[in-house]
Amino acid sequence: MWLVYAFLFGSLIGSFLNVVIYRLPKGLSVVRPRSSCPHCGHTLTPVELLPLLSWLLQRGRCRRCRGPISPRYPLVEALTAFLFALSAYLLGGTGGIAGVLLVWAFIALLIALAFIDIDTKTLPNSLNFAGVFLGLMAAWALGFPQGFSQALEGGLLAAGLLALLAGYGGLIYNRFKDSPREGPFGVHQVHLAAMGGAWGGMWGTAGGVYWGSLGLLLGFLNAALNARTARVLALPDGLTLGLAALAPLAALLLQASPLESLRGMLLSAGGLALAGMLYWWIRNPSDKVEADNTEESGYVSVMGYGDVVLAGFLGVWLGFAQFLVALLIAVLAGAVLGLLAQRFGRGGQQIPFGPYLAVGGVVAFFYGEALLRWYLAYLGLG
Ligand SMILES: [Zn+2]
Question: Which one of 35, 114, 206, 250 is separated from 122 by 20 to 30 angstroms, measured CA to CA?
């Protein structure tokens, strides 16, 4: 009976998510006005707003003008309903009522993010950061789904990993051309932080100081200097990322820890990436997607920073180990679907990375531990 309620509640939330997915990128309010038919403008009555049922009863058409209504709407409602019921079932009683509500919020945010990314190729900061802060608050107040330090570290490492994949990927793809400079906070400060974190991090904690935070210090000093001088001072990507990559090797020679060097690199890069995105979000809190996003610099980014914040969101909820499971699922799903699209001639329609990450995140949240254990046993390490 409880699962039926979860399903019904999920379909209602799914109906609301349809509104969010449609309106948020247009910069419209998600509460007012009431939904209307896109063809004739007729305001929908409560009977026409029943999740799933209305669409089925009306056979996918507007009651007044018979205009077609996209099957995407009942699909999002059914997906949300199914995942709400499934998560209530899988959680059993873990985390109590608060736990169930938090996991539903986690799922709802990911569904909205995935479909907005499919529609607009962007991930709204408001939803991404809602996920980050909700996860941190839940970890801090309830220790759910994990402890606070684990959540914070998971978020920073995950965001740092994607920021550096974007950094190194961009460097190689653009044949070592420097990325466009942006001040006071840009990717250059993230790469500088990676370098400092990698070289400081290899010494771990010594004398009561965590040396990996050297990267954070350098990155924030660079951003502060940019803000102060109203110029964009930055070391080129090739230099910072090159030196960052050398650090784990140097750690071997210096009898320091290569693994700690990598950890410092990811933590610092993640910290700067999330802080930078937070800065830009506060500067421009609108979720409206601007049409003219053309890059005139000739530099092609291999991954957007929306994906970096989404990684931070997932890392906060999953922890770093299970985030890696989510990332692996996302990459595999992307590769399989990419091949299928090529094979069956729909290669023209590009699917962004966000939806794959979202799918990977939900699967890893429930099955990550089991998958990880299975994989380690498979390697003979478990
Ligand atoms: Zn109509």
Answer: 35
